[in-house]
Inverse folding.
């Protein structure tokens, strides 16, 4: 029976006091997760913030030159590549900002245990706040085949856009990883409306790492969770493990690919997509929307 | 088929049509105490009061028993102030009781999903629905048109399996306006695996109806499993999406996979009407309810109101405000973005590839 152990790390901003403290905290958590058998570890969104202490707000950082932004990104990646190599895990290092052709994107990536960046993913849908910051939408959604299955990345608010997870699933993702930072006070329903339901309607595994606390004058709250189709989880909740508090720490779960296969075999949701109808309607409807 | 069998079948069909003739149903309803709908206050613009019927199955051999149940629910909805009532998926199974000996049919398996487990001694169950189509058409058209007219209320009938001239069978729901006129119908667009195996067809047209109560649509059951249905309806301008359902068991988590997330991602109101009870060895359970974007609900949970039970007859009543919904759509800051370039890059090819695979 094929199954893999995975872990999601949750960070509370109040627990991170410096860049050095950030790396110590993350290294410690990844080490512990790996020692328990995890081969894949995720971090929450905006982890790059813990390397940007000299900037009072995100806007002032995003106003820096593309050279500074990309240098900072490189430094961020190098540090996390070392963590992945040190503990021999696939690592999603949270999220960072990158500059391409003068345009800034909110991005994440997947680092292999050997330290190779296998996949870089830009956030493809933006909130009003993110659009006001001048961020751009990514235009590509890639997946990567690994020994532990097909991996796809759903960055931040992309979890509220079902198109993203559908594309990733149809392009071969078995596990969708979501570095997240959910704005506002904690409301569990917000997470059901996000990754939980993406997992259910695509019958994939979902890993969501949440940032908790204040950052750049915005409050974020959520509960780091590992999801699977309802039918293969205790109480048919669709949840394999969840962090029940807002503190820093990690959760671990075993993803059984055989159990997932059985769920799909009995209830093959994607087999019954009404492709003929979609092909007829969507181009027309989006064209009308564009004209508006 | 032997000639004598053909004659028997035709005679039985005539008998059923006689038993369900429109004048008989109308006469039955004419004897009822019906309120003067003209005296009713006109609906407040922007506010829509909705009734969602949770119908408990009971096999009936006399079609007027079915009419009586629907009358009772519509009457109650009217007195609760509802302007529209929705009924569940397969809101016709009760009428299978008109077939002699149907109650002796045993399910192959107690956990049978919908009609997949029914043993008809070699008979194709779709042939039964084909045979009953003229009868069901008359019952539905007369009952719901009359009730809508008499109570001055919009009615979404719930779905019934109907065959077309070429023999193809669809799950179809209808909308009647408050004058009793047929506004339109909607075929189920996505099937349960067992329905597909049986040979039921899925519809290829999705519709939004512009009514005095706002722009409404009524896809059916599994259609809410697919975000594509609600995204199309959102793009077509739907305000309220009604969803007749008939699920084989109830689990709050599995129930959460249907209309609730669709409402959240599409910023619309959603209304679910559930079929409950047991018939021909098939169990049905579910909770009817009215749902809204979580920001528009008191407890920030996306639930306006929901049935208390998952196995009893109930009438769920709630009010939604279209003005608040339209304002919310203008204000929303987390969702509401679109990435057309991304969709154009991937979806046509991905859907095409799936098509080739099958």
């Amino acid at each position: 029976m094929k199954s893999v152990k995975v872990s999601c790390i949750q960070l509370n901003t109040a627990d991170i006091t410096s860049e050095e403290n950030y790396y110590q905290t993350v290294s410690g958590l990844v080490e512990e997760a790996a020692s328990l058998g995890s081969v894949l570890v995720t971090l929450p969104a905006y982890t790059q913030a813990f390397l940007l202490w000299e900037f009072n707000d995100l806007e002032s950082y995003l106003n820096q030159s593309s050279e500074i932004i990309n240098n900072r990104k490189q430094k961020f990646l190098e540090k996390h590549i070392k963590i992945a190599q040190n503990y021999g895990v696939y690592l999603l290092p949270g999220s960072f900002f990158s500059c391409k052709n003068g345009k800034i994107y909110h991005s994440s990536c997947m680092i292999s245990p050997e330290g190779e960046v296998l996949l870089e993913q830009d956030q493809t849908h933006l909130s009003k706040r993110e659009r006001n910051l001048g961020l751009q939408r990514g235009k590509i959604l890639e997946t990567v085949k690994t020994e532990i299955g097909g991996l796809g990345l759903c960055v931040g608010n992309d979890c509220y856009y079902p198109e993203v997870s559908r594309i990733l699933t149809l392009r071969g993702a078995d596990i969708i990883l979501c570095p997240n930072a959910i704005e506002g006070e904690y409301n569990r329903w917000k997470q059901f409306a996000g990754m939980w339901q993406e997992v259910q309607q695509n019958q994939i595994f979902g890993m969501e790492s949440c940032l908790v606390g204040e950052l750049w004058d915005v409050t974020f709250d959520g509960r780091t969770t590992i999801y699977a189709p309802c039918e293969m989880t205790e109480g048919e909740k669709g949840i394999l493990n969840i962090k029940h508090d807002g503190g820093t720490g990690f959760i671990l779960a075993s993803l059984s690919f055989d159990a997932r296969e059985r769920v799909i075999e009995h209830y093959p949701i994607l087999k019954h997509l009404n492709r003929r109808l979609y092909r007829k309607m969507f181009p027309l409807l989006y064209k009308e929307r564009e004209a508006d | 088929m032997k000639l004598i069998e053909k004659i028997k079948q035709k005679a039985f069909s005539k008998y059923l049509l006689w038993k369900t003739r429109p004048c008989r149903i109308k006469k039955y309803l004419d004897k009822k105490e019906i309120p003067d709908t003209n005296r009713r206050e006109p609906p407040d613009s922007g506010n829509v009061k909705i009734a969602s019927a949770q119908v408990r199955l009971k096999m009936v051999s006399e079609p007027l028993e079915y009419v009586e149940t629907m009358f009772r629910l519509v009457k109650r909805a009217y007195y609760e102030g509802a302007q529209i009532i929705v009924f569940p998926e397969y809101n016709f199974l009760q009428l299978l009781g008109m077939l002699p000996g149907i109650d002796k049919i045993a399910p192959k398996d107690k956990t049978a999903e919908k009609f997949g487990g029914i043993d008809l001694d070699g008979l194709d169950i779709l042939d039964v629905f084909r045979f009953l189509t003229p009868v069901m058409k008359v019952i539905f058209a007369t009952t719901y048109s009359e009730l809508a007219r008499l109570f001055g209320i919009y009615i979404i009938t719930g779905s019934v399996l109907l065959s077309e001239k070429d023999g193809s069978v669809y799950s179809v729901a209808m909308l009647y306006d408050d004058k009793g006129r047929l506004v339109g119908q909607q075929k189920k667009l996505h099937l349960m695996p067992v329905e597909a195996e049986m040979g039921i067809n899925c519809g290829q047209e999705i519709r939004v109806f512009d009514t005095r109560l706002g722009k409404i649509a009524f896809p059916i059951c599994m259609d809410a499993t697919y975000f594509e249905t609600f995204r199309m309806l959102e793009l077509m301008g739907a305000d309220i999406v009604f969803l007749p359902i008939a699920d084989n068991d109830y689990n709050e988590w599995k129930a959460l996979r249907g209309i609730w997330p669709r409402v959240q991602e599409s910023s619309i109101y959603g209304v679910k009407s559930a079929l409950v009870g047991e018939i021909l060895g098939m169990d049905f359970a579910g909770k009817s309810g009215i749902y809204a974007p979580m920001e528009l609900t008191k407890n920030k949970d996306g639930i306006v109101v929901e049935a208390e039970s998952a196995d009893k007859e109930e009438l769920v009543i709630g009010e939604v405000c279209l003005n608040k919904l339209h304002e919310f759509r203008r204000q929303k800051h987390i969702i509401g973005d679109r990435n057309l370039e991304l969709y154009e890059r991937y979806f046509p090819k991905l859907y095409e590839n799936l098509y080739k695979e099958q």
